[in-house]
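Appendix B, Record 12. Input sequence as logged:
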Amino acid sequence: MANRVHYFIPYMRQGLAAMVSDLSGPGKRITVPVSLHMEASDLPADTVLKDVALLGPGDVLGINERIIRKTEPEADSRTFEPSLIPFVEFTDPDFLWRFSTRKTPDGNNWLPWLSLIVLRSNGGEKTPEFTLLPAAEPELPPRIQLSDDAILPDLHFSWKWAHIHTNDLDNKTIDQLHQSIARTPEQAVCRLLCPRRLEPQTNYSAFIVPTFRIGVDVALGIPSIAERDELNWDTPDDAKGRVIPYYYQWDFQTDTRGDFEYLVRLLQPRVLKDMGTRAIDCSNPGYNLVQGELEMQMEGALRSLDTQYQKWGMDDEDPGTPNETQVAFADLLNSREVTVNGKKKLRVTPPVYGEWYVGGEGGNTQVVVERTSWLEQLNLDFRHRASAGLGVRFVKENQESLMKAAWKQFSEINKVNKSLNLGRFGRAVSMRMYRRLETMADENVLQLSLPLQSKIKSPEQEADQGTTFTLQARLQSSAISNNLSNVKVKKYLSKTNTTQNKSTGYKYAPLLRDQLVSPGFRPDGLLTRGGDTGQIMYKILETGDTQDPAFQQMGLNAKAALNPQTTITSRFTGRIDKLRQWERKYQDKLKGGETRSRALPGATEEDPLRPVMWYPEFHRAMYRFLRDLSQEYILPGMENIPENTVGLLQTNRRFLEAFMIGLNHEFASELRWREFPTDMRGSYFRKFWDTSIYSAEQQEKLLFRNSAIGQELFANIQTQYGSQFDTWEKMEATYTNGDPEVEEQQVAQAYEKAIEDWLLTREEEKDIERPSTWVLDSRLGEHPIQASNKNMADQLVVLVRGDLLRKFGNTLIYLVGKDGSAPPDPDYDPASPRLFPVFEGALSPDITFLGFSIGAAAAGDYFIVFEERMTDLRYGLDETDVIDPAELQNMTLDNLSWQHFENLEAGDYLDGRIPLIEGANWNKPAFIAKAFLQNQVRVAIELSVLIPAESQS
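Logged structural output:
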């Protein structure tokens, strides 16, 4: 199938305007000779010759704003790139030449009857180039007074900066394009460019003004003596200080210098070395632990690929042999309980971070100095204790807000647990009463339960249907009349005299309330339903009659149905089914020792009315706290990174785990201090990096829809906006709409906020596994997240320093593999996988880092790609630092820059300037449009050049 491509056409005139061949002749309008041939049945044929005058610029007082399809930049934009040029698009493809009255000198083109000028405005340090004036009369267009230093274009070259643009299939001829535009004119636009080289960080106003003087005079309300082809100004200097009208105006502001291509080309791949640690003085930690100097290397959350851990403690050559400092410190930590004169006393000692995850609530966990587990590694190494202390600091500084949030979370679960507690209380009271029923005979229980016969299941089933009946249905289907299974009738029959069947003469004794008929009772003359197969379910007074097993089973069923374990429990378990499902999701981990609340006595794990196991969870990205405290906690040595750098780092998981253990340990202590129900083993904080920045994939969007956060968002949107956004598809479309309405913007913001919050709560995005599941013989940094892709010790991180991501925050960054060429190129095949960041962070003033789900060892297999995201067409030129004309002349059209135009100062118009390359084509508006069209930029850097040589070996 053919591809759709951009087509640019230099101009278009339609209707009578296309018939103009001779521009000579007097008058304010162009005339076109028209011949009209007439015939009639009773008159001779005749031909009438007439000069028809076409409307021209002198007949226009303004334009309807609806004909303007788009302005670039948008009105009031504050981030327009100074390397680009403004433009305006009109819906009718021939609009710019519809009222033209002048051709180019070679006769091959027409000057557009409108021009686009851009002038400096108020609001900046630079002097404005105009002053707004009121219209001379209400029906006339508004006016501006040009300043004496205003920079204006040369209107003689205005034809170069106007064109028609359409998209169509490849290999179309010009005639086919004209036919296509005639059929579907809405698929084409005419565009007017303003080729002024803008200055950075400057306020501008763009004006659509008449090109011809006759149009200016009419718009100013003055009699015009100008010729129809006379320009608004003959030279730019002629216009300075003049008053001119305008048909349309909008304001914008430029950003700092450099477009995407310019800034991404400034980035230099560099090998980052010796980063990730900083010296701290541990000579005097207190308690007389260290004699002499001890300088240790405090670690950060990120480190360069070549950084080695300091050989001390368990990182020493012989980690199984503790040093004297560790032995002394272990003795101190283990001396919290001492015996003095035969009595145990408590001492204030430093905390044993993470002890409750090993020894349980209230346990006095001993630090075994010869053991090389994560508990000893964390508590006997000053570096890791310092990391854990940073987590302690966060809790201490934010304890009030954290406890407020914890109690708020608890209030929701507490409502459920209160209901469960009442259920257990009611069940316990009912069980006391039920014990009396357990001692009663089965037939008595059956009679006692007859008022509930419609609610108690019968033990027998219909063989053909497998349907379970109630006692009432079973009795009513028996051979005895239905009246005998009715309680009130039974009471009546027990008081009547002996009855006799008149037809047979048999007598019947009265039925007493405690008597039932057995299936074996068959007195002669007894009227039954269903013939001999009918079953009689009653027992008479004569001794020796046996009781049917089915009847006994009915009594047993009645007992079971009245059991409070069934009646009360079933009423509650349905209410908390969703919470139980959530618990079962983590039951394997919870069985490992971690609970979410202290279970009440007698509330076993198998008890359906046990309290919901719960602890508060916080999903905030904790790296932000460390960054705000000091950026050196994230990346020590970051000040040595040069400007415009791309480099590789890796995470330091053991620092991260030490910090998170200290954080959770201290918060557990805070919960206990505030009398919050906890067993001290909860995993309150497990999120370190920020994973809310990357876009959710389609599968993740589907999961989000079914999440609690997603359902709450959907309900809120329905309540606020009704059927306007009654489907997920409508809601998600607002997130990608390029021109949203106000309500669409509000929905998009709510959707983005909700999905970011959800991403932070996902189990797959957690940065540490629950500490209660950590095995004791493991080391710090060796606890992968089983539910995620973070199964390597340290993750690869790409660091970018420069203005690129600060200015173009929506840059698409990902990893691609290598193709089979030599040397290798990026594999951009759509079928090939791309790795996107799993977290992202920023350090002031201009550092961004992105984490990927691969280890440093796999870095050599990938390219890092920086891809510009473009949703609309943009026009402009590149920026380059090259000034050598010879080098500029060797460049191609893809590298066409402002520097290719000699002696062009900031603020100047290109007008008739010819670039150092492609000069022969610079008299073709279609070619100029193609040259100025900015294509999407994609730059790839091979990661192997960012790896230190010693790491590669």
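The chain has a mean pLDDT of 81.
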